[in-house]
Protein: Conserved hypothetical protein CHP03032 domain-containing protein
Amino acid sequence: MSPGFAGFLGANKISVAISSYQSGKFYLLGQNVEGGLLVDERFFRKAMGICVPDQQTLLLATLFQIIKFKNVLEPDQLVNNVFDHCYVPRELFVTGELDAHDVGQLKDGRIIFVNTTHNCLATTSDRHSFTPLWKPPFVSKIVKEDRCHLNGLAMEDGVPRYVTAVSKSDTIDGWRDRRFDGGIVIDVATGEIVIGGLSMPHSPRVYNGKLYVLNSGTGELGWVEPAAKAADAKFHVVAFCPGFVRGLGFHGNFALVGLSKPRYERFEGLALDKKLADADSEPWCGVQVIDLNTGACVHWFRIDGPVGELYDVAVVPGVMRGMSLGFASNEVLGLITHDPLAEGGLA
Structure:
């Protein structure tokens, strides 16, 4: 961890939520009362996409569930005299194993998520595993075949704006042969490809009027300058990060980028392998804070040990010391809160 990372969180009154699908970890990072780093860690099998619709709500996609957490603390309450927000699972949607990636919340409050196995955007259903809402025009039908590896979702004001996919393939597993330069960003409203030629793009985000994307196969954070034709669109690199970049949040003039190590020693078939060799650098796992003006890494948080891959990174504004409850400990059994007695009772 860089010396100023915890101070950066505290000065900006933010926490950072991080998911690791490989280890099933869900972290909330903040600044503790002594000025150091506070880490809350929970276990959720295959923790994936994170969404922060507001200060009171978190959404998390997992192996076969989408979980909605709500903060149960009032502004003057603390847990263990430390935590100012406590996110408790309050709604849980069983989807089955859909390889859900990014997740968001629509204007009407419904959950929307990337259903990667079925190549579509979907919402939860009271009856079924999911309700499909949209698919790329080049995908011929809703079927359980990961064809294009649809993964990232950019929301703006409760509306899905853009998605990323590794390719525009329409055959099962077709995307795997297109990892080097088959990546695309799609405009959800029109179905048109905004830009192509990317390498395993992830984590599209609309921020301050720009479309940012992580070009994971090259280790680059950048933004897209659209054009009348996708072939003429430009990807402007902001920064190179030493790892497979995936997970992107923003605060002020800073981007918080997630980095992962390779799954099998090398990033085989990706330009990232050569870029790291040229920079005489090893890949690492963690979060880098990038100055959007200069592209410089101004703060960083590194994760060593068995955790080598991250999926998502999200900023939780206004939360200094957040915690969550999971199902792997008894804490969720004992933390009981309730609303006041409703006037009129059952009338």
About this structure: The radius of gyration is 20 Å. The chain has a mean pLDDT of 96.
